[in-house]
Amino acid sequence: MIEAMPGFDTKIKAAVRRIPKGKVATYGEVAGAAGVPRAARMVAFTLKRAGRTLPWHRVVGAGGRILLRGEPGLEQRMRLEAEGVKFRGGRVRMESHGVRKAT
DNA sequence: CGGGTGACTTCCC
DNA sequence: GGGGAAGCCACCC
């Protein structure tokens, strides 16, 4: 109703945008929110294509690992920390920031 | 329409 | 904990 089933990348953007500040979501989560849990790769690719119009830095890999390499990955970690996200080793504390419930 | 690609995920050693 | 391989999906040319 409020939407007419837009393209995938559109849903990805919407999902990423609704990630609360100080929290992070995995590609799989975002993909799931978009309707296809297995399209995690697509999420990453779409995010890149989307550009900086969304909080892409709130999207991390499974387990809270930053998959980005080089500068962008470093920047992402810095941004997350700036939002209050805590890291352990080189991973986000999904137990506290994971949108998903901790088991 | 077909093929290549990727910021993925998961399993196994 | 680290490395390698396979599977999956949608986008782009």
Shape descriptor reads: globular
Q: Which residues sit in consecutive blocks of at least 5 with pLDDT less than 50?
A: none
User: What order do the SSEs take from the amino end to the carboxyl end, as H and E?
Assistant: HEHHEHEEH
Fraction of residues in helices? Answer: 40-55%
Residue-averaged pLDDT, rounded? Answer: 87
What is the radius of gyration computed over CA atoms, rounded to a whole number of angstroms? 13 Å
- How many β-strands, per DSSP? 4
Range of strand content? 5-15%
Biggest sheet record: 2 strands, parallel
Number of helices: 5
For the largest beta sheet, what order do the strands appear in spatially? 1-2
| N-to-C CA distance | 33 Å
What structural class results from the helix and strand content? mainly alpha
Question: What does it look like?
Answer:
Helices cover 44% and strands 8% of the residues. The chain has 103 residues and is mainly α. It has a two-stranded parallel ribbon. Strands 3-4 form a two-stranded antiparallel ribbon. Strand 3 and strand 4 form a beta hairpin. It is globular, with a radius of gyration of 13 Å. It starts with 7 loop residues before the first helix and ends in a 6-residue tail after the last helix. The chain binds a DNA duplex (13 and 13 nucleotides) through helix 2, helix 3, strand 2 and helix 4.
Task: Please summarize what this structure is.
The chain has 103 residues and is mainly alpha-helical. The protein has five helices and four strands, in the order αβααβαββα.
